[in-house]
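Practice problem 4.
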């Protein structure tokens, strides 16, 4: 089971670079590769991504008790120390707003492996329609930090319907 969870964690981190981009308030390193989805925030680096749950393998979805669907959005996040890239626990708040200002609240849950900590944000009731754009607003307070880092990013979703 640990091997499966490690493979799942690595797969989720691989998905982090798939889409999206940092919000206007985020500090982005100049050498950032195209499509990178992270911000540097002082002593921390926050990686993030948004996708639909159908992009998860059936095994991964089962392991994390997530319903696979092309109209269910989810967010993955990880917080690392900037100096050694070790994982950090954090308090994370997440919400999404579409272009008509409809708020879509997300629940964030922490997943912890032997040497990885990552966060999954999803809402069982939130669905997206074809070409819907969501602006994700994220607030991250790493364990030991005195202030939160707030940033936003947008993602357009494509569904079959």
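Answer key:
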């Amino acid at each position: 089971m640990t091997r499966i969870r490690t493979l799942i964690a690595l797969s989720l981190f691989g998905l982090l670079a798939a889409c999206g981009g940092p919000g206007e308030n985020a500090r982005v390193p100049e050498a950032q590769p195209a499509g990178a989805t992270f911000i540097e925030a002082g002593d921390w680096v926050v990686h993030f991504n948004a996708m639909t749950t159908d992009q998860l393998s059936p095994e991964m979805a089962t392991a994390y008790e997530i319903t696979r669907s092309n109209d269910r959005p989810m967010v993955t996040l990880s917080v690392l120390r900037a100096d050694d890239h070790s994982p950090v626990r954090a308090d994370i708040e997440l919400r999404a707003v579409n272009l008509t200002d409809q708020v879509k609240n997300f629940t964030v849950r922490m997943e912890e492996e032997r040497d990885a900590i990552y966060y999954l944000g999803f809402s069982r009731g939130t669905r997206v329609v074809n070409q819907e754009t969501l602006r994700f607003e994220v607030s991250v307070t790493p364990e030991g930090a005195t202030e939160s880092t707030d940033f936003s990013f947008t993602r357009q979703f494509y569904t079959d319907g």
